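Customer ticket, subject: "Can you confirm the structure for Molybdenum cofactor biosynthesis protein B?"

Message body: Hello, I'm evaluating your service for our small team and ran a test protein. I'd like someone to confirm that this is what the system normally returns, since I don't have a reference to compare against.
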Amino acid sequence: MSEDRQFIPLNIAVLTVSDTRTAETDKSGLKLKTLLEEAGHRLADKVIVPDDIYHIREVVSKWIADADVQVVITTGGTGLTGRDGTPEAVSPLLDKVIDGFGEMFRVLSYDTIGTSTLQSRAVAGVANGTFIFCLPGSTGACMDGWSKLISSQLDYRTRPCNLVELMPRLHDK
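Agent reply: Thanks for trying us out. I re-ran your input and got the following:
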């Protein structure tokens, strides 16, 4: 952390992808809300949608088009089953993929879940100046993704570089 920089709070939207979760049972989405608010960011919106690529894409597209939403974090739908479609829903929307996110997520998850991490299709990228992170649905995976990767990259004080300092240049041509 750089002491000569001030923290910049961001507006972050959280999307839970699940066929079974409700507002009361959405542990992962609620955990992400708590973590981002404890870090000093603002919850822009929180939605739960079924594991359907068109529902996912509809909500994420709305947030990408909203200038007040700077970051989207999804939880769920990143596995291998027939209903897991978050990467397929989000990837076509991305202007650029942040390949290192999925790679690092799986490396860090290996310490917790071993070779089961190869089943994770965590992905991240940027679309219309909005950063998007797609995490698995387990609360542990969300906590790891936030605390070990996302939180420091969404903190302007992180050196040598972070995603926040790139935001003013994301629309450069």
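A couple of notes from the result: The chain has one domain: 11-168. The CA atoms of residues 5 and 68 lie 23 Å apart. Feel free to reply with more questions.
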